[in-house]
Design a protein that fits this description.
This protein is of the alpha+beta class. The chain has one domain. Helix content is about 50%, strand content about 20%. Strand 1 and strand 2 form a beta hairpin. The termini are far apart. About 15% of the residues are buried.
């Protein structure tokens, strides 16, 4: 039986578009997971820095800090995803920063594997506004007092 070079079989003709679609879908899933991990990290970084910052003015303004520094923290690491938006919420001593974004996925067109909605995601980071130096000094002092009490008991 003589085979012709350069011709695809019927199975390969049906299989190759599906393989290409699955590979494209895997790439989009990877972008989604990458963006979700990075936005979680950036939300926490912004929350922590906003909780300890006074921006050199002596007054505590986490909303202003998040608005001013969110572009710098996000940087250019969100490839395959839209630029995120961050918003701060303050409740007592706790600062909560919520970041939202979505993955771009226009290349799949109207193929059967493409999800119909957007691939939006959000993450929140929170941190408490503490005076960390004072907190550490208090714990160290309590530890020292505990040692003194133990020494007196012996």
């Amino acid at each position: 039986m003589k085979r012709f070079k350069g011709y695809m079989t019927l199975e390969a003709t049906l299989l190759m578009p599906m393989v290409i679609c699955v590979l494209a879908l895997l790439i989009y899933f990877t972008y989604y997971l990458y963006g979700r991990c990075i936005i979680s990290e950036d939300s926490y970084i912004l929350a922590f820095r906003a909780s300890v910052s006074d921006m050199g003015t002596g007054e505590y303004d986490p909303f202003g800090y998040v608005q001013e520094k969110s572009e710098q923290v996000a940087g250019k690491k969100y490839f395959g995803n839209q630029k995120p938006s961050f918003e701060a919420q303050v409740s007592g001593k706790e600062v909560r920063v919520v970041g939202k974004s979505e993955t771009r996925h226009r290349a799949m067109g109207r193929y059967f594997l493409k999800p119909s909605g957007s691939w939006g995601y959000e993450a929140a980071g929170r941190a408490k506004n503490r005076k960390y130096a004072k907190h550490i000094r208090t714990l160290t002092r309590l530890k020292d007092l505990g040692r003194e009490l133990i020494d007196l008991g012996e």
